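Hmm, how's this folded?
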Amino acid sequence: MAANDNLLLNLLKPVIIIMVFTFRPDWSEFKPGKWIKKTYKKIATFLQIQYYAIRGENHHEEIVWKLLKKELKIVPFKHEVKESEKTVYTKFHLAPDILGNFWYMMYSDRLYFRAAIIPNYPVEQTTNIFILAQHFNNQVNHGSVVVDVRLNYIEFRTTYHFPEIIFTENAIQKHITHHYKISCDIFWAFNKMLTENEEPAYIIAELIAKREGVRSTDEVLAT
């Protein structure tokens, strides 16, 4: 009984701290309903993470799989769930009129995201394909552009360890969004190179300029 009391006390201590530090409103703009909702969300998130920690590593795969399926239920396109393979397949728009294939899968204590960027590129563009892929791999903080020369196929992959997913608030949502946005940028770049025959370095400079919204492409190339 004493052990259970100590466990409960240890769980409640951070909850109390969260409440104390959250309850520092500007009284002139204080809205009780908004504060209660914000505090409840923080407490619920903390308790959920503590619950995951108590369950232990043997349950990490089960927890991440449930979180992944829950998050992908809200995607606008029909998705296919393969329980035995721990894989979810769906589609997202890589461009307004282009749908891309996306896979989310689990194995070896990791969660893998994959997006098909170009399913069949022209063989004569292989050298430029590799140059542009290398430019992206130097720019992207997490993930890699993979080129399969046997299938003339390009995809973007990211990998996450289970604890990172479990013990970080809204991790799956953030990672899916990040992977999707980078996939769109990669598709834009490769599609522009293949359809407009632009040089890889110029395309990357144009993408950087577009992201920053300030410098021109020539200024990026000059740096």
